[in-house]
Amino acid sequence: MDARIDIRELNELIEKHSGFVTNLQAGMNQVIVGQKHLVESLLIGLLADGHILLEGLPGLAKTLAIKTLSELIDADFSRIQFTPDLLPADVVGTMVYSQKSEEFKVKRGPIFANFVLADEINRAPAKVQSALLEAMQERQVTIGKETFEMPQPFLVLATQNPIEQEGTYPLPEAQVDRFMLKVVIGYPELSEEKRIIRQNITGEKIKTRPVLSPREIVEARRVVHMVYVDEKIEQYIADIVFATRYPDKYGLAELKGMISFGASPRASINLALAARAYAFIKRRGYVIPEDVRAIAHDVLRHRIGLSYEAEASNLSSDEIVSLILNSVEVP
Fold it and tell me: How far is CA 239 from CA 159, 246, 265, 292, 325, in A?
């Protein structure tokens, strides 16, 4: 079959299935002022079936964003506040003895929800973090002798506060790698701040109504998997990731001493998956280089290890990604 007809059919299929994106964005924008990038990232994570690590100061609508999304999708939402005394059982669940039936029964933890907000994940010790990350990776949890599948869709949004480092347990690099995206959110614009004040002093609660069901999200994911990724785009993704490992081969010899380790193969997979979801959001049946560039910082910023030299020069992983995007040849 002619490839052009294929793409045309694919575009029509995506047009048919992506109508809810506008409704979701409109619903989110009703409640959340600004934070366009956060809303877009949540949609990418949702459609590409990837978890998100959010870094932002307190009060920037992180909790509100995921709660609103779960209301718009008519899905289960749970929030886990990570604290130093939290135990793995507090997250995944435990066996509880029932006096009535004289046997142990499984009591499921708050992780059994479609949308899980792990608030301040770096406040809890490694044992708790790994319990959450195992559920994220395996999509299942074992309590006692029983194994339970996670509901579909299952999206974990973990937040960490960049300013308070006292009494925190930083996530190890291998665990951070399990997040598809690391999204850094900043302060709103002045005009947005005024709208936030106005919205909150009126005391009116904006009611959100579900615009789609969890089943429709699972269906949309199937269509996202059909988005066409050309061989040239695959090469472009591989080149970007390889440039984080061997910058000198891409004319970036000055970065060689700045990077202690490059992005893993998981970065290549997630770049392709997130680019597909981004193309779907933009109502396209194929991925273009701009899609890859649009999501590259969020996919790569937590997967590049900075050397002491880079830290001494105040060079961030975001700046390294920008340098790589500017030097790798665009197809």
Answer: 30, 10, 12, 12, 10
Q: In angstroms, rounded to a whole number, what is the distance separating the alpha carbons of residues 110 and 76?
A: 10
User: 3-class DSSP state for residue 159?
Assistant: strand
pLDDT per residue as tens digits for the range 219-229? 889 989 989 89
User: Does a cis peptide bond (omega within 30 degrees of 0) precede residue 88?
Assistant: no
Distance from the first to the final alpha carbon of the chain: 24
All domains of the chain in start order, with CATH = 3-218 (3.40.50.300), 227-327 (1.10.8.80)
Tens of pLDDT, residue by residue over 29-49, are: 888 777 788 888 988 999 999
CA distance 234 to 57: 35
What's the CA gap between 295 and 7, in Å, rounded? 23
User: What whole-number distance in Å separates Cα of residue 282 and Cα of residue 15?
Assistant: 10
